[in-house]
């Protein structure tokens, strides 16, 4: 098979513990999902090893801290100035941080476990789960945050090449700047209007409705990417194809549609030499683990079928960038 026509299966994870949900839900509301991450991650790594799957784990830098004292060493010099102050972790949340059990916010041990497994790339999800479109003029605080993320990663023996912007708030104006920090790979949004990057308040009901339907039936496209589209000058964009919606008892009658949608996307990518990029959060599968891991097993077994039939290959985001960079 011509290398340019090779199909690829990419998996990325937004690894954030409570940092990524703290402005939306309380520990009481979402704590079981976060606690479940501590058992879900080892289980997921074993599954990746079983199926020889590579993945990129974009880690919120703050969760690399071992405790609050360690966290304080890395707090950015310039803090974000969001219009909605609740979005910042340095206000009321910070004041109450000492009252939150460590396992909800600090996960250095889990990240070290990921590093032990073959094919697992560690990227950054910014230091504080930074929202890049909430205040577009606040460039200084973003790069201060990124500097902290790089510093805590390096202090833990991690060299960052890949960034996944929290809530897919990709700010095109920041891309040249991240390259100066030797970060040159990012996850883009699906190439269709209802998946476009936007501030939280700009996510209207129509956009959300189209996106929801698209999880179950094809209304736009397969959301797969040509390898030739990955390299954009000296930056590499690997677009998302599908968020894996976690098990929900209320919607379980739609599970077969959800899985068929994913399998059809995978098959399209495998047959046509494109990239299918699946992503989710470890806390998505922190509860209802048996049901969620059943989904994953179905998807990964299907990957093996496609690998056997079409030579479909599993790669992490860094590996995809290397392939894209080597194209003639």
Automatic annotation (TrEMBL):
Ranges for domain NodB homology come to 39-183
Q: Which Gene3D superfamilies does this one have?
A: Glycoside hydrolase/deacetylase (3.20.20.370)
Which top-level group of life is the source organism from?
Answer: Bacteria
Q: Name one GO molecular function term.
A: hydrolase activity, acting on carbon-nitrogen (but not peptide) bonds
CDD domains in alphabetical order: CE4_u5
* Coiled-coil annotated spans: none
Gene Ontology biological process terms from the UniProt entry: carbohydrate metabolic process
Q: Which InterPro entries match?
A: Glyco_hydro/deAcase_b/a-brl, NODB_dom
What is the designated name of this protein? Polysaccharide deacetylase
Native source species: Riemerella columbipharyngis
